[in-house]
Amino acid sequence: MSYGINAYSTYLPVHRVLLADIGATLGTNAGKGSRVVASYDEDSTTMGAAAAALLFSAVRTDVDALYFATTTPAYADKTNATAIHAALDLPESVFAVDLAGSARSGVAALRAAAASGGLAILADVRVGRPGSADERSGGDGAAAFLFGPDPIAEIIAESSMTAEFLDRWRDPLAPTGTQWEERFGVEQYQPLIDRAVAAVLAEAGITEADHIVLVSPNLAVAKRAAFALSGKLTTTNSPIGHAGAADIGVALATALDIAAPGETVLVVSAADGCDAWVLRATDRIGGGRQQVSVAEQLAAGTSVPYPAYLAWRGILDREPPRRPEPDRVAAPPSARAARWKYSFTGSRCAACGLVHLPPARICKRCGAIDDMTAVSMAHRQATVTTFTVDRLAYSPAPPVIEAVVDFEDGGRYTLEIADGGADRLAVGARVETVFRRLHSAGGVHNYFWKARLI
After folding, report:
1. 256: closest CA among 2, 10, 88?
2. Residue numbers of the chain with a pLDDT score lower than 70
3. What is the DSSP string of 113-164?
4. At how many degrees (to 10) do helices 247-256 and 104-116 cross?
5. Rg of the chain's alpha carbons, rounded to an integer?
6. Which residues of 4-37 are buried (b: 16+ CB within 10 A; e: fewer)?
7. How far is CA 275 from CA 111, 193, 238, 435, 447, in A?
8. Which residues lie closer than 8 Å to 454 by C-beta, 6 or more apart?
9. What is the pTM of this model?
């Protein structure tokens, strides 16, 4: 039994690198437009948590399993899905697992979630060599899909083909990947696509779909197959470029943003084989779309200088500030304060209502002892009371901006400001909390919460 899509959401980082800036820096013609890039304090884990949080902000429901797909895991030999699980403050009984290694991992997460009625989260940070096609045509982002029995889009047919050939690969220790000559990939993929599409359309009982989603790590495959399938139909590739395991998720979300009730969506992913589905939008699609469409998120970006982006990815080794680098986070205190650290959960005094950040056993106002209830400040709005701009503290993207923020329902805390904004920050400014990395040291990532200007 396969469940349908009950809800979905995407997360695109706000930063954009202009392709013209890449060309000017490297002395080449990099084309027009821009590339979506994750900030220095974002990775596949934080972006996956952001996409899922956006989904849950619209549809909060019980989840039995969480499947996290990425080609760029923050950790090896450790489950990255557990950090997302903690950031979402899910019960410990919820199964959470990684599906990593290739773009097809995104397909695996969707299939697993569809079979169990679970949550599929797809996220990736794509890195290419400076001036490469991977750099120009890649994109960073995340998507989340919740499957269940009352869908906005039902799965009416599916087909999969698997084949072994060398088209795209990456050494596990290398930050960037390699691709064989594109025409070879086209020769290998096209027959698989033809057979998979013919099989899935026959099973669905249709000759063509109203929308086509077609993605592949091989851009020549995506262009040729999309041209062959499109005709008069609406064809949707990932609008941010190839996004690894998140590619199919971002592209599918783009189609769901515009699909009308009763319309069909043909989804094709050509990655180490070919996977195809036919979905039909139900009468619930109009009220079940994500709150901010992929197109709107894509248009809302702000540019970042290309050298800064290279420094964020560790490709450009800049002179760091002459200040001590942060120490590695220790495991025992992180485990003891897991709900505070990952889901930003404080405590509210049941006697007088004072909110304590971080959580406390004894109320600072009335002195009540162990009379607290948990209260999460994750993805909550607040007002800046005061702030400071520190141009000397260690940071991959100086200056460091710290702001004291007051939450609407009580609670005050000092948070670092994410995604820049030193020129726009002011007392009284509105912010929202976001899950990010404070720093990394000794191979350990210090995840916590920051504030971002609204």
Report:
1. 10
2. 1, 230-233
3. HHHHT-EEEEEE-----TTSHHHHHB--EEEEEEEESS-SEEEEEEEEEE--
4. 60
5. 23
6. bbbbbbbbbbbbbbbbebbbebeeeebeeebbbb
7. 10, 8, 16, 33, 35
8. 381, 430, 431, 432
9. 0.95
